[in-house]
Amino acid sequence: MPRYRIATIPGDGIGVDVTVEAVKVLNAVLPDIAWTEFDWSCEQYLRTGAMMPEDGPRQLADFDAILLGAVGFPGVADHISLWGLLIPLRRAFGQYVNLRPVRLLPGTESALRGRTADDLDILIVRENSEGEYSAIGGTHNPGRPDEFVVQESIFTRTGCERIIRYAFEQARGRDRKLCSATKSNGLIHSMPYWDSIFERIAAEYPEVETRQMHVDALAAEIVLHPDRLDVIVGSNLFGDILSDLAAAVTGGLGLAPSGNINPARDAPSMFEAVHGSAPDIAGRGIADPVAQILAGAMMLAHLGESAAAAAVDRAVCDVLAEGAVRTPDLGGTATTAELGTAIAERAAALVTR
Ligand code: NAI
Ligand code: MG
């Protein structure tokens, strides 16, 4: 009997290239995983008119976790790929936390001058189930001069409380500093509400030092003073934008992992790179697999396999630090598969079973 049953959805573009490498690395540290692949993608959409079958969530419900590549490809509108697969899965499985650790990895260079690994170690906790990403709204009077669109945001008490509390718990286990992203000067209903819940929950965690910053100023803070930041909590939209920014100022999108977490553990959590399907480099064997491999390590940690997770993390750091095998985004000439294999071999040597 395999210890874990994991579903993979490689998806589109480089999602396919990097998922193969993550599976290779995880097999090297934990041989008793049973993998089941689902070919849900934009290609499937063009063939069948749906990104996944109607009972897609039910097909995945009994797996221990899901490893997702990326979805999106030219010819299929991005809102179709996102709302046809990623968002329904996040919501069906109660994955209300999107966890995005951003670190400067050894042997890689920050886009910021003079910054070292000590300065850049941030955990972004993004709300993953409501907020600005809502389907409520519509286009009115289409095609007429008085045409207009409405896009609503949803901030529920339950949704705000649980994500903010989760962020405080994370901060308590790290440097005990939590910054909340707001924009209460512009969004005069949702953000003051978010802020009031943040302040109320902050009172339960006196040991955590808190700040509330407007998201624009916080974006600048990530660039100018990343060393002052530890955990950041933000709404769905703010967390999304800040994590791409934070990933870009560290080693780039090719290195940033994420987890869609169901903290109640009553449905599978889903792990993926922050980056998308990168059609500009897809199929050329040059995508950096590190983000997806680190997403795999987050999955192992979530499953309680902390030794295996640590071995993968350490293998990534060692191989990057040595610098002999690097993909083009890091200034090297190695292929996706060569870097994946180097990390898999190192991880296998490090793991203590
Ligand atoms: P992207 O993240 O796919 O690419 C942005 C840039 O970063 C590109 O120049 C790409 O070549 C580079 N890049 C990304 N990952 C890389 C890696 N592992 N190694 C080397 N270079 C890498 O974002 P973009 O171009 O905005 O979106 C492309 C498609 O991906 C769209 O259809 C979008 O909707 C979709 N997407 C899907 C996501 C998901 O499935 N979770 C998340 C973000 C975008
Ligand atoms: Mg994003």
UniProtKB/TrEMBL annotation:
Q: What are the TM regions of this chain, as residue ranges?
A: none
Query: In which domain of life is the source organism classified?
Result: Bacteria
Q: Which keywords accompany this UniProt record?
A: Manganese, Metal-binding, NAD, Oxidoreductase
Cite the InterPro entries for this sequence: ICDH/IPMDH, IsoCit/isopropylmalate_DH_CS, IsoPropMal-DH-like_dom, TTC_DH
Query: What's the EC number here?
Result: 1.1.1.83
Which chemical reaction does it catalyze?
Answer: (R)-malate + NAD(+) = pyruvate + CO2 + NADH
Q: Which Pfam families match?
A: Iso_dh
Q: Which GO terms describe its molecular function?
A: D-malate dehydrogenase (decarboxylating) (NAD+) activity; magnesium ion binding; NAD binding
Domain (Isopropylmalate dehydrogenase-like) ranges? 5-343
State the name under which the record lists this protein: D-malate dehydrogenase (decarboxylating)
